[in-house]
Amino acid sequence: MILKIELHIYYELFITQVLGHLCFSLRLKEVLYLGYFSSRLQKKTNESPTTYRKVLMLLLGCAAIGCIVQAGSALVVAASDSPDLSRAQADYVCDGAADQVEIQRALSALSSAGGTVTLTEGTFYLSGDLNIPSNVILEGKGPDATWLKWSSGLVQCQGKQNFVLRDFKTTGTGAIFIYNCDRVKVHNVTATVDNSRWGGAFTLWVSNGVMEDIEFVNCKAIDCGRHGWQSDGDGSQKTIRNVRYIDCEAINCGRESRFAPHGQWTCGFQLAENADVEDCEVIRCYAEGNYEAGFIAEAAPSKKRIVLRDCVSKNNGVKPDNYYNGPDEDMYGALFGAGFWLHGDMTLINCTAENNRKAGYAVWYPSSYTKLYNCTDTGSEIGYKFDYTDNVYVENCTSRDAGRYGVYAANAGKIIAKGLTIINPRGDGSKNNVFGVSGYPVRESSFDIETYGGGGATVSCPNGQNVQFSGTVRSDAARPVAVSGSVDTSRLSVQPYSGGNPSPVAPTPTPSGKPDLVVTDISWDPASPAPGSAVMLRATIKNQGDAPTPAGVRHGVLFTFDDGAAGPGVWSDTHTAAIAAGASVTLTASGGSAGATWKAIEGTHTVKAHVDDVDRIDEGDEANNIRTEQITVSGVAPTPTPTPVGEPDLIVTHIAWEPAKPVPGSAVTFQATIKNQGTVPTPAGVISGVAFLVDGRLAVWSDSHTNPIPPGNWVTVTANGGPSSSAVWKATTGTHTIQAWVDDVDRIAEANENNNRRETVMTV
Questions:
Q1: Is the pTM of this model over 0.70?
Q2: Which domains does the chain have, with CATH numbers?
């Protein structure tokens, strides 16, 4: 009897204290499982039904409370065609008609603190708007798995903050409309929407002052009946700022169907229209086959610090020539058919245009210092078009095989071009590379050019006003230079054209009087991560310019992994102190779209650190802010093998070279920092050698260091020899993989012989 009472008390306590705590995580649908457990407990212990009715009531109460807790954090919505298991585990199940109702219920059920609504694999059929609240994540299982098909309605976000849309595809009318919202992330969303509404597949709209911190990553607008992206609003004094487009695509927008009544203006990326835009960054984005321009910023709004980096725009402007939009067709047609149509404070770095219907790059209207660095055009009708504009800076850019003109300028002033290369433009009658049009002359401009081939007048500049040409013209034309007015060609060399490829153009030295930030090293902790590890990233940045960076401005660094293919990026944005000229600081990642650490994925990955990624700081050189390293994540169990006692272990921690920015033909000297992370010193008198490989081939080596390296210490060694009896490598044009390999000939017995190499990338 005593034993039975004790058992009774024991189970009462167990249920109330243990299960009573655990049940807060249970959903209401799991009550049947709890009831089953309770009945099994009764049968096993022979307890009375009264006791277990109490138990069941307690479990029911706990499950109900747990349901409330769950509603504040994460809910699941299944489609009508989702797998049976997904439907059975979902909190809401759609029936294939007006599915926005169930999704909206799930969003509304989240607490004010927010949470996540996950849409399972399957197709959701929607016939009305879906309104996104603040502080939520709406996610699918990927654009290939979760489809939102709208017969009417759209994804609508009005006056909300701190929300994420990710991992689904939207079709039909279902564009994404973000209206007066802040701190928004749209990741991995594909849109194939029709022409039923104005605007873009992804639309930003501001009407009440400032809308800020919007991010699109790995999003696609494909075969849409409207713009891919549109940034718009209620006119000037309404501002959209701190916008990021990263690895996004706009393909065939408006090509098959165009939205009315303004279908003539359907473009890939409409970056600014009827609202001011500030601090906008467009990274590795792609536009192809769009009805009008690939990338465009309209003339009307104010534009400050819009940067396009590593973007591609090809085969845009597919609108036929016989499709007229009205009397303004002649004025705008050549611009809207461009790969990039630019206005205002815009900077393009390493961008590519190809086979666009009109210009590769068109700058129109007072530009307020549009800048192009290391950009190329191939096969567009006009390589670079400067029309009714001024204050344009072009550096190390190329036009190849233009359908008409390598450069076309009309009514343009204060154009500065350095290292502008023009190769084989087809020309237009007697004209070829045109630098001015009679009646609309070029004014107060200078062009440093290298031209190759083409018939007719390679340099045609009638009635120029204070214009200077320098460089070399290679042409077989009878009159390759045809200028009049105030045009200085005294520093322009004219040579016969014998064919062949152009010589590389050395970059212009960094202007003095400005800071210049570069990344000199990338490191991570743990040094050898295992799959699933939380990896902390650090970058050492150096100001190699002639002036300190401004105090109070964030010195940001963005880290990406395989350009976004190996997980979301992280960033550092806390350093605001000035960095003196010549000084360096090491910054640690402090945030990211999924947290401040990277979740390691098995394999070898490229880590890219991009300092001043949103161009907050005006630098002497804006094109040298990126460094890459290789990180290897081993599939071996996370517990490392202990280092054997009594052996050194050499690794390479850093690779450097002088000059820091080599040009073709430079004599490059390599250095490597090596560390002994073992438990004993390296042996005295034995060479701690380092081999330096360029693109997998031995270039030079260091073999002079013979002093012991104590445990935990490091030394920096400099190349002093090589297979060609030279200690320097002669730089060649291109992007090269540089590898430093310590103890490459195995002179030293180490605890780990498989961690002796480090790689980085050099661009010449």
A1: no
A2: 2-71 (no CATH), 410-508 (no CATH), 517-633 (2.60.40.10), 650-763 (2.60.40.10)
